[in-house]
Amino acid sequence: MGGTGFFGLGGWELVVLLIIFLVVVGPQRLPDVTRQLVRWVRQARRWVDDSRTTVEDEMGIAIEDLKKYDPRQYDPRRIIREAWGDTDLEDLVPSKEALGVAAGGAAAGAAATATKGKKGAAGKDKGPQRAPFDDEAT
């Protein structure tokens, strides 16, 4: 029964720890312990802010500026779209009609060449034939 909350502890475990903490500290020392905890949190925040300022001064770059170099933000589709600029997809890919005319014309020419003198009973090309096997080639 592993919790997924604070430090891997669930809600009930945190409640039990809080009750144990209150019993150990006691009501007399609770205000002093709370003030000390607040002091530690403020010192930690001040230390983080000072460290951030030092890094920004030393590197000459803000932490927020470093986020634009995060590799998780890169989407290949967006990068390609930006690289092509204003070019639409329709301008890059030929239309189906143009492909059909070009492919149909080339296919008809190739079929006519392949079927000269080699038509079957129905007069249609049988398609590509398998290359003959050569025993001596291997």
UniProtKB/TrEMBL annotation:
UniProt main location, coarse: membrane
One Gene Ontology MF term: protein transmembrane transporter activity
Q: Which GO terms describe its biological process?
A: protein transport by the Tat complex
Q: Where in the cell is it found?
A: Membrane
Key words, A-Z: Cell membrane, Membrane, Protein transport, Translocation, Transmembrane, Transmembrane helix, Transport
Q: Where do transmembrane segments lie in this chain?
A: 6-25
Residue span of region Disordered: 110-138
- How does it sit in the bilayer? Single-pass membrane protein
> Cellular component terms, GO, for this chain's entry?
membrane
Q: Which residues form the signal peptide?
A: none
Which InterPro entries does the record cross-reference, listed alphabetically?
TatA/B/E, TatB
Per its UniProt entry, which superkingdom is the organism in? Bacteria
For this entry, the protein name equals Twin-arginine translocase subunit TatB
What is the scientific name of the source organism? Brachybacterium saurashtrense
